[in-house]
Structures are given as structure tokens and as C-alpha cells.
Known about the structure:
Blueprint: H1 15-38, E1 88-91, E2 95-99, E3 104-115, E4 118-128, E5 133-137, E6 139-140, E7 146-147, E8 151-154, E9 157-159, E10 163-167, E11 173-182, E12 185-196, E13 199-208, E14 218-228, E15 232-235, E16 238-242, E17 245-251, E18 254-257, E19 265-267, E20 270-274, E21 278-288, E22 294-303, E23 308-318, E24 322-335, E25 344-357, E26 365-374, H2 378-381, E27 399-404
Antiparallel strand pairs: 1-3, 2-3, 3-4, 4-5, 4-8, 5-10, 6-7, 8-9, 10-11, 11-12, 12-13, 13-14, 14-15, 14-16, 15-18, 16-17, 19-21, 20-21, 21-22, 22-23, 23-24, 24-25, 25-26, 26-27
Amino acid sequence: MGDTKIALLALRTTILHIVFCCILGLLFSLKATAQETDSLETVVPSVTKDSIIIEPQIPAADELNITVLDTVKIDSVKTKQPLLTDKVVHSAKDYMRLSRKENKMYLYNEASIEYGDISLKAGVIILNNEKNEVYAYGIVDSLGNYVQSPVFKQGQRTVKPDSIRFNFQTKKALVFNSKTEEGAFKVQAEVTKRQNDSVYFMSNVRFTTAENVEDAEYYFYARKIKFVPGEKIVTGLVNMYIADVPTPLGLPFGYFPLTDERTSGFIIPSFGDNQDRGYFLQNGGYYFAINEYLDLAVLGDYYTNGSYGLRFDSNYALRYRFSGNLSFRYENLLTSEPGFPDYSETSIYNIRWSHRQDAKADPSSRFSASVNLGSSRYYRRSINQSNAGNFLNNSLSSSISYSKTFSGE
């Protein structure tokens, strides 16, 4: 068996071999990493849709402090509305002067201004264009008399003051010593403030039913009143004056309706003087508007010697049926004073009834009545002014009649 020889060779380590081994190791690791990445599978998560859809909440612009810019720019200059909405027509007899410095127009002698439904005439009118106001007052003639006082008209209303100040824009006015009529009342006020065309506030007012309000036989004086044309007069403390003499007749407040329709209210008495019975108030009382078919007036008289009288008047009517009136009058009259020899007391009364049937009510029957009964000397002794025309009536007569027509032969 031959001998086997093993030869051991020494390992040679050089710089070139070390570098080569490092490069091979690096390339191997890069390739292994690339293969591992390619072998990974892409996992897509499964999403389950919810049946409830939630709308996204979009915050408002002001919450986000975002300024929204409009492409259209707003003009900062505001358009002024015209102060006068109608044409002002003015005229004067002597002259019309325009002052540009004062921005006023002066009209003298028979001056007039018309604006819409407003008409103003006076001796002197000053139109202030800056304040949109007009002033008007009268003039003094050669004899020293105050003439051409202002006359203010609006619609159907007329006011005649001594002077007036009116604003075209607010329609308010300040009137001095105004005189106006409302129904049966004549009203005179020292100062009047016109709030609008339906409300007036007045101070130091007197109103009466006499013909001449400046020289009235009697009137009611109130410190302050509220005047609503066509509706009412509401007053504070009010007193009754007779021949400019105050009387103890007064009220802490007063309400006087002013309407063309039938309404309940007080009836103003008349006053006078009787030689035997002294001063008196007659035919004053209250009117009751019960309904459209019936009314009632309760009136009374009073004399300073103690005499008195009562009167009840009622009217009734039913269209196409009948109409009539019924009245009862009673007077208790005293002559002289108790204790004197000529002292006497007399009571008189009178009842009147008048009834008329309409021809359309029943063509086949007719009924009428005219009743006048009572004291035989009622008209001779009565001192009520309403009976003055019947003073010579010495007889009382009554009649009631009814007729019926039967059809056929």
C-alpha cells in the first residue's frame, strides 16, 4: 500500500481578496432584500358602508372670521327724500320777496299758500325753507285795527286764529287764539297745539252754543282739553260761566261727544232771570238714545226761589208702520217767599200724546191720536220758555180716531 502524502499549503490573505469578499456580501444582501419586498402581498382592508349618511357640517363664514366681499359696491351716499311731496302755490297782493341769505320768502297783504289739501290765507306769510315751516299773522290797517287774520283750512275744517306756525313735514302746528266750530259747539282757545289732523291739545279754552263765542251769554271754561274733531271733547277741570261770571257749577273733568249720529249725552240748559222767582236754569238735562226706534229726554228747570220743573219727552217710530211722541210736564211754582202774605204754591202739569199711522201699514184701517190734557191753566201759568208761544191758549182738546174699511159690496 503506498504512502499517501498530504501537503498543507499555507493560506494567503491579500488586500485584493478582502475587498472582493466585501463587495460580494454587499450585493448578496441587497438582492435578498429586494426579493423579500417583492414577495409581500398588498393587503386591502375591507370597509363596511354605514346606512346613515352624515352630511358634513360646513362652518359659517362669520365663525371662520372670513370676510365675504361682494363684487357690487354699495354707495355710501344716501338719497335724501324730498321734504315737500306736493307743489306749493303762493301769491300776495303787494309783494313777494325772497331772501337767499335767510332762505325765507316774505308775502305781504292778502297772502295765500296752498299745499295739497292745506290752504292758508293771512296778511303776512313767511315761508322758511330751511326749517320747512310757515308763519302767518294779520296786519294793522290805517285805523289801527288788526285785520286779515290767518284762515287755515284743511279738508272740511277751518280755523281762524290770530297767528299760526305750521310745519309742512310733520304737519304739526302751533295756533294762538283760535276759533273753530264743531257741530253745535263754538270753541275758542288761547293756545292750540295741533298734533295731527285728528288730535288737538288746547289750553285756556271756552266753548259754547251761543252765536258769538267772544261775547257769549254763557260758556264753559276749561284749563286744558283734548279735542278730537267729529268725535269728542275731553276736558280737565271745567266751570260754567254766565255773563262772564263764574258759577259754582263745575266738574273735575268733562266728556262732550261730537258726532252727527244719535248718541246719549247732556243737554246744556238756558239761563235767565224771572222777576218773581229769581235766576233760573231751564231745559237742562240728559238725552237717552235708547235705540233706533225710541229715545227719551229728561229735562229740568230750577229757580233760585225754590221753584222747579220736570219734563219727559219721548219720540218713537217704526218705518212703514207708525210714529209719534209722548211728553209729560210738571212745574211746582212758588210765588214770593215763605212767610209773606202773598206767598203761594201752585202745581201744574200737562200730558201730550201724538200718534200717526203710516198709510203703508194697513190700507184698510187707520188709527190716530192727538191728546192734550192736564191743568186748565197750564200754558197761562207756565214760565218755561218752550211754552211761551202757547201763552194765549186757554183750551185743551184731545181726539182719538180709528177707522176700518171692509172689502166687498
